[in-house]
Structures are given as C-alpha cells and as structure tokens.
C-alpha cells in the first residue's frame, strides 16, 4: 500500500508571499492535479509520476484538460480542482442564489449572533431611478427600528426579522471547478445585475489561474429562457395568490414507509430479491419490525448518520416560512428544494419576544411601509422588489427529502440550541 497527500488548501496570501520570495513558477495551479488524475485510467505509470510530469509541462497539461472536458465530455476531472472564496458585501437575497448549489461548502455570517450595521445593497435595477429614494428610506426605517429594539433588550436573532434582504452579508465558500463552472453559467444568465456581477467577479479571479477547466461559463438560452417561457405558458391559468394556508403540509410520501425501510434492510442483510424482501417484511409482526429498526440505532453515536437504507423512504412537504427560517432550511442542500419568491400576501412571522415586549404594533407598521414600497417597485421590476422585503416575510417552499435526511434535520433543528423558528417548522415536519 502507498498513499500520498497530493495537495491541500493554501491561503492565497501565503501563495502571494511565496511568489514574491521565490523564482517564478508556472505550476502553481490546480490544473496539474486535474490533468494528472485524468490520465490515471489509461496511463500505467504511478500517479505521483503523472503529477510530476504535469507540473513540468503545464501548457501541455492545460491542452489535455481542455481536450478531455470539451471533446471527450469527461467533466469529472474538473472536480479535482478546488477553490475557496471570501464573498463580502453582497445582499442576503444574493446569498440565497449562491447557496442553491448543492455540492459546495458554505459558512455564512450569522445574523443571530452578530449585531448588524446599516450596510445594504441598492440593486442596479433601482439605483438612479425614482424608486431609489423610496427603497433607501424604507430600509433606513427598518434599520432604525432594528437598533431601537436591540437597545430595548431584544436579542439580534429576533431583531433581525425587521431587516431587509438587501442587508449586506458575507460568506466563505469552497467548491470544485465543475460546480464553479455551473455557477458561472447560471449566474451569467441571471436577470438580477448583482447576481451577474458576483459570477463575473468570481470568474475573473479564477480564469487566469485555471483556464483549461472552466470552459462553459457563458450565458445560455436554457438558463435565460426556460423559466420565463414556463411562466408565460402558465399565465392562462389566471389564478390569484391564495392565503398562506398551513405552515407545514405533508403532500406526498412513500406508501407503507415502514415496510419499504424494512425491505431495504433485509435486502442488504440477505441475498433475497427486493420483491421477496418486501414480502418478508410484510409478514413480520409489529414487535419484529420495531426490533429490527431499533437495531439500526443500537450503536449510534452523536456523529453517526442513520443507515443508507433509510433513503428509500421519501417525504414531500409544502412549507410556508420566513426568510430567516429559510436561511437555515436551505442549508440542507441534499434535499430537493424549490421555492417561490417572497410574497407579502403570505403575511409575516413576528418573533414572540417582540410581541411580549409590546413592540409588535410598531413592527407591523414597518412591515406595512415595506409592503407599500414593495408594491411600487414590483410594478417596474418584481424581482428587484424582493430586496426590500424583510426577514419576517414568507414564501412557499416545496421540499422533498428522504427519512435519513429528515432524521438529520430533526436532530439538528429540533435541538434546544436551535433557533426557535426552524425548531417550530422542523417539529411540524
């Protein structure tokens, strides 16, 4: 056996210092890792030799990457190149777009634990137009109330419900080049200028370092037009937005979920077909079923996940939740999450601490001012109008996950240390 550490993350400031104190090198790029690993399947030489060769011939390695990705369609080699980004001064709304991408790592500045300043993003769609004044004045009123109630003893995690989705945020992000290319393509096609700018800025930082593994980064018809045409075709339905309805509604699930789980457990523990496993599971007594499932957790520690067999049970929920709550739910990226825009017609979530302090009337007053500004902006640009809405505003989310993921959500979000809003939603699910 031979196992070598081929690479690891290094801070760009450290790399910059090394460049200043060392001779110029062309091989300070993750492309050499991608190129050498791409050759593993057809080149008999040891991997460490392939890496050495790629470092010695960087331009040749780049041509190899481009050929393998573009002509042969093996995009997976781009997954071996990994990047870290500090993302600062972007809106909370923009972070929702950024964190839609599943196979990436994110750590976000917490509005629960940090007191917010008055920094916010003015979207390009509003800047310089008549609506900018209304937009800025509304957010200033939101922020003023935020600071007032904090001074009156309201914790930041509750006070933040009155702050807008335009509030500046920051994020640390780690992802591979394949996912990065997907972000570039999606963001280049996005209708909001801030999102396009984020993608362009990230692209300009990466392209000089790794030009051979970021190939399909341009705006495209699929991302630009598909949802627009779907919306156009559904306009004939002539439906109006209905009231919020229940916060959490189970709308679909695996039939006979216990039997499906038990059959999956039997399948991995025997040599029977799944059909036979399902029949055997159906014959088990309630006590036998319970004992078999309890065995799955007998030796589980706090860091253990349920067995993969739990993934064969699916559940789909319709959830109406606040922006503050969605900020936590969206982190469960293995789930299938499709959300509608924030909609004032769905009402707002007011923290109990604000109501108990007798501040709910003023809170609702700020919400009413916000809704009026939202309506004004919506007439010109519905997407840009989202920026002015608060963390208390709600939207509808369609979320599908398996029992294994629900177990993880429950353990994390129903814990006594979890934020109250996500606790409540998770408990209902």
TrEMBL record:
GO terms for biological process: dTMP biosynthetic process. InterPro entries: Thymidylate_synthase_ThyX, Thymidylate_synthase_ThyX_sf. It holds the Pfam family Thy1. CDD domains: ThyX. It comes from the Bacteria. One of its GO terms (molecular function) is NADPH binding. PROSITE patterns: THYX. This is Thymidylate synthase, flavin-dependent. It comes from candidate division WOR-1 bacterium RIFCSPLOWO2_02_FULL_46_20.
């Amino acid at each position: 056996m031979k196992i070598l550490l081929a690479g690891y993350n290094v801070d760009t400031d450290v790399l910059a210092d090394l460049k200043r104190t060392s001779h110029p090198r062309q091989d300070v790029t993750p492309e050499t890792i991608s190129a050498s690993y791409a050759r593993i399947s057809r080149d008999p030489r040891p991997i460490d030799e392939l890496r050495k060769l790629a470092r010695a011939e960087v331009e040749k390695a780049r041509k190899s990457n481009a050929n393998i990705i573009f002509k042969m369609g093996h995009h997976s080699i781009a997954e071996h190149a990994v990047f870290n980004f500090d993302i600062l001064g972007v809106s909370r709304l923009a972070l929702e777009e950024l964190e839609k991408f599943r196979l990436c790592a994110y750590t976000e500045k917490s509005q629960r634990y940090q007191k917010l300043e008055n920094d916010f993003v003015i979207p390009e769609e509003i800047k310089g137009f008549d609506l900018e004044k209304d937009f800025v004045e509304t957010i200033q009123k939101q922020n003023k109330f935020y600071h007032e109630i904090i001074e009156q003893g309201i914790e930041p995690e509750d006070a933040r419900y009155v702050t807008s989705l335009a509030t500046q945020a920051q994020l640390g992000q780690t992802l591979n080049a394949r996912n990065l290319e997907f972000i570039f393509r999606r963001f280049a096609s996005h209708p909001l200028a801030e999102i396009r700018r984020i993608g362009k800025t990230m692209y300009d930082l990466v392209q000089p370092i790794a030009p051979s593994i970021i190939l399909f980064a341009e705006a495209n018809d699929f991302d630009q037009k598909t949802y627009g045409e779907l919306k156009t075709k559904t306009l004939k339905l002539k439906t109006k937005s209905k009231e919020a309805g229940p916060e959490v509604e189970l709308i679909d699930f695996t039939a006979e979920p216990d039997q499906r789980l038990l059959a999956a457990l039997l399948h991995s523990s025997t040599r029977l077909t799944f059909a036979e496993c399902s029949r055997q599971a159906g014959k088990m007594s309630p006590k036998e079923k319970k004992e078999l499932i309890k065995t799955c957790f007998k030796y589980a520690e706090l860091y253990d996940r349920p067995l993969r067999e739990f993934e064969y049970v699916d559940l789909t929920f319709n959830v109406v939740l606040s922006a503050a709550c969605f900020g936590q739910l969206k982190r469960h990226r293995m789930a299938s999450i499709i959300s509608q825009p924030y909609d004032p017609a769905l009402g707002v979530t007011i923290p109990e601490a604000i109501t108990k302090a007798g501040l709910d009337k003023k809170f609702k007053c700020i919400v009413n001012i916000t809704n009026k500004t939202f309506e004004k902006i919506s007439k010109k640009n519905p997407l840009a109008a989202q920026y002015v809405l608060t963390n208390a505003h709600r939207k509808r989310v369609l979320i599908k996950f398996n029992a294994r993921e629900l177990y993880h959500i429950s353990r994390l979000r129903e814990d006594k240390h979890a934020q109250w809003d996500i606790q409540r939603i998770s408990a209902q699910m």
